[in-house]
Amino acid sequence: MVKGFHALPGVGLVYPTDWIAMATPQLTAPNLAAHDAVGVVVGPFKWAPSQVGHECMFFSVSAKGDPSNIDGGITGPIPEWRLVPNDNNIAQRNVHPVFPQLVKVDWEKLPFWIRNHGKDPVRLGLTVKVPEWLGRLGWKFSVPQITKDRAVLKPDQLLKVSVAMTKGKPYDTAVLAKQADHDIVFTVLQDDMPVGGMTYRLSTDAKHVLKAPRKVPAGSRSAKAANRKSAVVRSSRSKKIR
């Protein structure tokens, strides 16, 4: 059995508090032989995303004799950074494809949210991993609300943040196509401990790049279709995917 959930894109998520079951909450997968190395595609899962082109996805796979921790093992709220890495039946992905030409990216339209579900205030920190080839060209990234303001997040506070970019030397899609690493990875720290992050992937596939939404009449079939997404998950060994 495969279950799918989604959440407002961000860091500090807690299960089940922040996660919403998809419109397709679960699907049955066929049985797999022991030591299967191929897997099977299960889907599609449909849901209405809260952000255009971006959503946190969370999938859980349970089988007879091998249940996911959310199927009986968890008795109360638990942070994602504790749940996901310690259960190979659970996978999470927070990835946002962006234009390969970074100068065209409107970072203000790609925010994410940081949560503190703890009982005490936490001091925020940030690490940014830029592809080596991109760093050599002088491109830099930060989150001013964290790096400049030295933010402290109060209990139950939800902080909306955006990425700031310093332009480097230009490059073209031919250069990008030769590179294996296309991911700009932000890892958020709370009291110096990693609690999650966001990945922005330079995409050369036009189908995966965020575009301005086309206005359609409310309630029309086009509007309803634009408000749905589908996803597939492989019913093989799961792992944390940031």
Describe, in short, the structure shown.
The chain has 242 residues and is mainly beta. It has helices at residues 69-73, 80-83, 132-136, 144-147, 173-177, 221-226; strands at 2-7, 10-11, 14-15, 20-27, 41-47, 56-61, 78-79, 90-93, 95-98, 112-115, 122-129, 140-142, 152-153, 158-161, 164-166, 183-190, 193-202, 229-234. It has two domains: 2-94 and 227-234, no CATH class; 97-211, Immunoglobulin-like (Sandwich).
Q: What's the total number of strands?
A: 18
- Enumerate the spans where pLDDT stays under 50 for 5 or more consecutive residues: 208-242
Terminal CA distance reads 23 Å
Which structural category fits the helices and strands?
mainly beta
Calculate the mean pLDDT score and round it: 80
CATH T-level topology of the largest domain: Immunoglobulin-like
Percent strand: 35-45%
The main pleated sheet reads as: 5 strands, mixed
Total number of helices: 6
The CATH architecture category of the largest domain equals Sandwich
Helix content: 10-25%
Strands ordered across the widest β-sheet: 9-17-16-11-13
- What's the order of the H and E elements? EEEEEEHEHEEEEHEHEEEHEEHE
Apparent shape: globular
Q: What is the count of structural domains?
A: 2
Report Rg. Answer: 19 Å
Task: Report on the architecture of this protein.
The chain has helices spanning 69-73, 80-83, 132-136, 144-147, 173-177, 221-226; strands at 2-7, 10-11, 14-15, 20-27, 41-47, 56-61, 78-79, 90-93, 95-98, 112-115, 122-129, 140-142, 152-153, 158-161, 164-166, 183-190, 193-202, 229-234. It is 12% helix and 37% strand. Residues 208-242 have low confidence and may be disordered. It has six helices and 18 strands. The protein folds into two domains: 2-94 and 227-234, no CATH class; 97-211, Immunoglobulin-like. It is mostly beta strands and 242 residues long. The chain has a five-stranded mixed β-sheet, with no helix packed on it.
